[in-house]
Design a protein that fits this description.
Elements lengths: L21 H12 L4 E2 L2 E2 L1 H13 L3 E2 L2 E2 L8 E5 L4 E5 L8 H13 L5 E5 L9 H12 L3 E5 L2 H7 L6 E2 L3 H8 L6 H9 L7 E5 L5 E4 L4 E5 L11 H14 L4 H15 L10 H7 L4 E4 L3
Length: 293
């Protein structure tokens, strides 16, 4: 829209609808990069059918679990003159225990699980213990589990030992109970988590991503560029890292791809996510340096 002023009538210039949500965005980005995945989740009502239909048309495989309540619709408002984005996030549908068990049954029966990405907040009606159970299923199936969440879900989820976690700087500060003054402080704290996870990807917005493992600590920075939107950038980073590992790249190269994919997503307004051509252009411009503690 041209401008968003509280208390006044504002006319919409242009409107688009997307199948969205953190895990779904990961699947959409993986598809763009050439990796196959199966989008899982709990969907219901007309919104759930539309979401599944849009993914089908986009070539994203999905195997959703039906629930009684309606899938939520979130609204992203872009103020064109200022370039700011305002997100209006619905609470989401309540999930019944029986619906949860239907979902877990689908998950346990999926074949060929190389990676399992768990993204976003826990739905209303459920508790963080659900993520612990999902992580356990992934580990038992031999998958490398990636956990991208915050708050209690992250705090409890890491005890189930996911292979990879991807908190942003704010989520990491909440987990640590402290404010980080620089990248080095972020890296130092992340090393304390390596008794429970193999890899920490700490994203820092325009400052890139810090990757902390037992072998090395790397900081990857994207090139400076104009930002049109930030929705889905973190999910594209997750997809870039998973795609890199899936095609046999070394962790450092997968990190570079993660930063390039997240940076590519910011070139598109709304939830347009990343484009492969943009990733290819940005990839050689990503700067990587080692941090010594």
């Amino acid at each position: 829209m041209e401008s968003l002023l509280p208390g006044q009538t504002t006319r919409i210039r242009h409107e688009e609808r997307y199948a969205g949500g953190k895990g779904i965005d990961v699947s959409r980005a993986l598809r763009e990069m050439g990796s196959d995945s199966v989008a899982l989740g709990l969907v219901g009502g007309f919104g759930g059918k539309e979401l599944e239909g849009r993914l089908l048309l986009a070539g994203v495989a999905c195997r959703f679990t039906r629930i009684a309540n309606e899938t939520r619709t979130n609204i992203i408002i872009q103020d064109e003159p200022s370039g700011t984005e305002t997100a209006l996030l619905a609470r989401g549908p309540e999930v019944e225990p029986s619906e949860l068990m239907d979902f877990l049954d689908v998950l346990e029966k999926l074949p060929d699980m190389s990676f399992l990405v768990i993204s976003g907040s826990v739905p209303p009606g459920l508790t963080p213990e659900v993520y612990c159970r999902i992580i356990t299923i992934g580990n038992e199936r031999g998958a490398r589990v990636v956990l991208d969440t915050a708050g209690d879900a992250l705090r409890q989820g890491i005890h189930a030992r996911p292979a990879i976690i991807k908190p942003n700087r704010f989520e990491l500060a909440e987990l640590a109970g402290q404010v980080f003054t620089d990248v080095r402080a972020v890296a130092e704290y992340c090393t304390t988590l390596l008794d429970r996870v193999e890899t920490v990807l700490a994203s820092a917005g325009p400052d890139g991503i810090v990757m902390v493992t037992r072998r090395q600590i790397l900081h990857a920075r994207p090139p400076k560029q104009a930002v049109k939107g930030t929705v889905g950038a973190g999910d594209c980073s997750v997809a870039g890292f998973v795609h890199g590992l899936a095609v046999g790249e070394a962790p450092a190269d997968a990190l570079r791809r993660a930063v390039a994919a997240g940076s590519a997503a910011t070139l598109n307004a709304g939830t347009g996510l990343c484009r492969r051509a943009d990733i290819d252009v940005i990839l050689p411009q990503v700067a990587v340096e080692e941090i010594k503690l």
